[in-house]
Structure prediction request, 200 residues.
Amino acid sequence: MTDNLDRRRLLTSAVVGSAALVGATALGSLAPEAAFGADTAPTAADGPDPNFAEGRITGISGSLLLVTGSDMTLYRIRVTGGSSIWKLHPTTFDRIEVGDGLYARGVRLDDGTLAADSLWVNIVNLRVHIAAMSRNMIHFDHNGKRVTGHVIAGTTAAVYNGTPAISDMSMLRVGRHAQVIGAWRPDTNEIDIATVYAGA
Prediction:
């Protein structure tokens, strides 16, 4: 409870413009894996977690994101100087666009807005079969649908059997299972690959 109150105080002060603000990553990890701490949206004892939101951005007004959830819930998410943003890699608010999808964690304010401490924009977490590979692309089958993954120089990494992440994709094999975390290119079947988890 104390942690929630401290986060609430921190993010409330950010909304009203306090200069004494730490980065939101001090409140928790911005790593893309952190967005998928549970298989579904977190729930509180009496319903959905009020400090979590997901959906697609339908409008941007100043630092306020208007988001329609997959269940048609409407969210207002306030981005502050302390909000951490991931869109394939840590980035800034000006990279967010209408039509992007997101997961957000933060603190619910008295006016109903969610003051975001972490935003993961267009993030996907897919269990796939590797269907084909080329130098800059990996084609995946995901639940019977083809997904094209783009290998991004300097960003895309592979983790083989739990070893540290490396940029070498050469141990990936067609026909093998993998898990892929990446950033969706909205309204396409394409993603930019952040990390591929596979057996060697």
Observations:
- The chain has a mean pLDDT of 82.
- The chain has one helix and 14 strands.
- The chain has two domains: 2-121, 123-198.
